[in-house]
Write a structure and sequence with these properties.
By secondary structure, the protein is of the alpha/beta class. The protein has two domains: 176 residues, Rossmann fold, CATH 3.40.50.1970; 186 residues, Up-down Bundle (Dehydroquinate synthase-like, alpha domain). 46% of the residues lie in helices and 17% in strands. It contains 14 helices and 13 strands. A seven-stranded mixed beta sheet has the order 1-2-9-6-5-3-4, with helices on both faces. A two-stranded antiparallel sheet has the order 7-8. Strands 10-13 form a two-stranded antiparallel ribbon. Helix 10 crosses helix 11. The chain is globular and about 60 Å long.
Length: 370
């Protein structure tokens, strides 16, 4: 039976999405238990990474087992390299050995890598299993956990293999943020800043008003995470598969993805996207869309969370342009960018958010960022 505290200390966000999103501060295990019992799965597979396993997952497994839930713990190394076909195949063999069926459940407990891997596994095995997300980082709570994209990397390209698949529920528990080091919190805030830049001036002002240290406080983090969730949900309501308005979520990801590819995903996602957003701002300024003052605001807000705004000189423009040839959103051998006309206001051309940019303009913008 669910505890009284768990019933009191939760709320469901009404975001107009296909799956429920529960918010709690310490009762995610009870919420998960309730959701699993609704489905009556024979097998439940908990995917997490070694770090989360050591701090949280083992306790969650014990909690569920003592309440009659059959659960298998599947930890993976805490690295972007785990988001691979090799890891996928290893997990697949374990599920097969347990005689898995489509009525069983996969639970992703962790950051963005774990959620992407869990979602890809759940969406492909038996043409779709039950799926639950319990995000444990700022990035995963504010961005990755909502939406339906899942995938694994290939040849250094992020999410080269991927699916569109909805979880049964998302459970966001703020208790998981307490153990995060400041660097991880800043990494997640970078993606929140993306949401602020593309669509949420109020969030932009909120972040700018805080000191760097204040941004690490739990009450401030919660406020920003909830704002980012609502901002992303508004876009997904219009464009669930991120082909039109949802493309705005790729702000900074064109150059960012190229940098990740060049480093074989050794560069952190947040660092790559930070530099990518600055390049996008410079492109918009060169094209006459964005005022130079707003370009400076990009650097200012990203510096506040200790994100890099200059590209390391080892990544010369020609290397980056070559890497862009592997961009998933390229069309007719042309590069397309999400650009802004001001903070919180994306630029459109012929009602499209993806704007074709010539290589010479990209090069000029890159040279401004060294």
């Amino acid at each position: 039976m669910m505890s009284r505290n768990a019933i009191v200390n939760k709320k469901q966000l009404r975001l107009g999405l296909p799956h429920p999103i529960f918010i709690t501060d310490g009762n995610s295990e009870w919420l998960l238990l309730s959701e699993i019992k609704k489905l009556d799965s024979t097998n439940n597979f908990l995917i997490t990474d070694y770090n989360v396993n050591r701090i949280f997952a083992a306790k969650l497994v014990e909690f569920l087992k003592t309440r009659g839930i059959n659960i298998v713990l599947l930890p993976v190394p805490p690295s972007e390299r785990s988001k691979s076909i090799k890891t996928f195949a290893r997990l697949l063999k374990i599920l097969y050995a347990h005689k898995v069926s489509k009525y069983d459940s996969i639970i992703g407990l962790g950051g963005g890598m774990v959620l992407n891997l869990s979602g890809f596994l759940a969406s492909t095995v038996c043409r779709g299993m039950n799926l639950f997300y319990i995000p444990t980082t700022v990035l995963a709570q504010a961005d990755v956990c909502i939406g339906s994209k899942a995938g694994v990397n290939f040849e250094g390209i992020k999410n080269f293999l991927g699916t569109i698949y909805n979880p049964k529920a998302v459970i966001i528990d703020f208790k998981y943020l307490e153990k995060l080091p400041p660097t991880e919190k800043f990494n997640g805030l970078c993606e929140c800043i993306k949401h602020a830049l593309i669509k949420d001036v109020k969030m932009f002002r909120l972040i700018m008003q805080q000191s760097t240290q204040d941004l690490l406080k739990s009450n401030v983090l919660k406020q920003i995470i909830l704002a980012a969730l609502r901002s992303k949900a508004l876009l997904l309501q219009k464009d669930w598969e991120e082909e039109d308005a949802g493309a705005l979520l790729r702000y900074g990801h064109t150059i960012g993805g190229a940098l990740e590819h060049l480093t074989k995903n050794k560069m952190t996602h947040s660092h790559a996207i930070s530099m990518g957003m600055v390049v996008a701002a410079e492109i918009a300024n060169i094209l006459g869309f964005l005022d130079i003052a707003d370009v400076k605001k990009h650097r200012e807000i990203l510096n506040k969370i200790q994100m890099p705004t200059k590209i390391p000189t080892m990544f010369r423009p020609n290397k980056i342009l070559s890497s862009l040839e592997h961009d998933k959103y390229r069309k007719h051998a042309k590069n397309y960018f999400v650009l802004l006309s001001s903070i919180g206001r994306p630029k459109t051309i012929d009602h499209h958010y993806r704007i074709h940019v010539e290589n010479k303009i990209i090069k000029e913008a890159l040279f401004r960022c060294y």
